[in-house]
Amino acid sequence: MANEMPNDFKVAMRIYECNLSGEPIWYRKLADEFEKEGAMDRMMVSRNIDKLFDLGIAEGDWERIDGTWTRTYRITESMIPFMRGLKQGWER
After folding, report:
1. Which residue has the higher pLDDT, 89 or 21?
2. Which residue pairs, CB below 8 angstroms and at least 24 apart, start in 47-50?
3. Which pLDDT score, from 0 to 100, does residue 91 have?
């Protein structure tokens, strides 16, 4: 069996990649993407976001997107080097 990234890191990596590109990311967008891929259901995405917040890996801000206040996510400043290393290691 091939090594597979744990679900919480998959969510963190998707947030990190969006942060790098400057694209805002929020719960519904994340959940829709993972559900469409068949990677995890909405409840699992929600639990993993909560876990990332609890561990200090991710944090949120309120932004107006398409006229609606939306909580967007980003990787905390202190975890960016870790995520960079994880991304580089995983792409090898």
Report:
1. 21
2. 48/7, 48/8, 48/10, 48/11, 49/11, 49/73
3. 67
Q: How confident is the model at residue 86 (pLDDT cuts 50, 70, 90)?
A: confident
pTM summary value: 0.88
Which tokens go with 79? 């975890």
For the chain, the three-class secondary structure string (H helix, E strand, C coil) is CCCCCCHHHHHHHHHHHHHHHCCCCEHHHHHHHHHHHCCCCHHHHHHHHHHHHHCCCEEEEEEEECCEEEEEEEECHHHHHHHHHHHHHHHC
Q: Give me the pLDDT at residue 92, please.
A: 60
Dihedral sign (CA 83, 61, 54, 56): positive
Domains assigned to the chain: 7-87 (1.10.10.10)
One-letter amino acid of 7 = N
